[in-house]
Amino acid sequence: MTEQRYLPDADDVTEFEATATEATDDYVVLDGTYFYPEGGGQPADRGELSWDGGSAAVTKVRKNHGDVRHYVEDVEGDLPDSGDRVRGEIDAERREAHRRMHTAQHVVSRVVLDEYGAATAGNQVHADRSRIDFEPAEFSAADVERIERLSNEAIERDLEVTKAERPREEVEERTEEGRALLDLIPDHVDPLRVVEIEGFDYCPCGGTHVDSLGDLGRVEITNRESKGEATERIEYELRRT
User: Fold this and answer.
1) Residue 185 burial (CB < 10 Å; 0-12/13-18/19+)?
2) Please, which residues bridge with residue 56 across strands?
3) Is the pLDDT of residue 183 over 90?
4) Checking CA distances to 145, which of 57, 72, 95, 133 falls within 20 to 30 Å?
5) Which residue, 58, 47, 50, 46, is CA-closest to 79?
6) DSSP 3-state helix, strand, coil percentages of the chain (rounded to 5)?
7) CB contact at 8 A, 61 and 37
């Protein structure tokens, strides 16, 4: 089992050391990692692993039955043996972009649920742009402008963002209907990691996030399109203020 050390609130760490437990021509497994594995609409981190006598680029990261596999390319030297110390370095600029984008997604999703009663049906975060699908929804141009304005008003309040593990019973009681797909999280997962925006939003989430809304800049909605009956997609970018 790989310990996901960025949880619950160490998602600002981009350099670390760990111990190799398995290494193949395709991937390296560590006893603990700060690399984020692909999931929840957020891409995996990229970066580099190095050890005495070798190094490799990490191009993708995925979970596999409790282990986290760091898929590698451009390997130099021999692969590490089980028990060898390995240094990890995450692409910090890309990680920070994902942190900002994912927290912005929570803000926009909260605004849309509050103002239009539409749940987040899916989302995809990228470093330079992101999208969210809402249902049931049918937004006008004026609605899109309002969503952007209200999202930026929340961001301007520079609310604190906290990340912590909470008892599942508490999370189920506090999470509003339409805010998260709790039924997709296996019952045995307890506690749950929760991302809470002070006085604004409460949502179970395993992704990486900033510590304050002031770190986001401004949301700019760049596109809206219908994705089928009563489903609307909003695409957005973030601008530094």
Assistant:
1) middle
2) 49
3) no
4) 95
5) 50
6) 20, 40, 35
7) yes
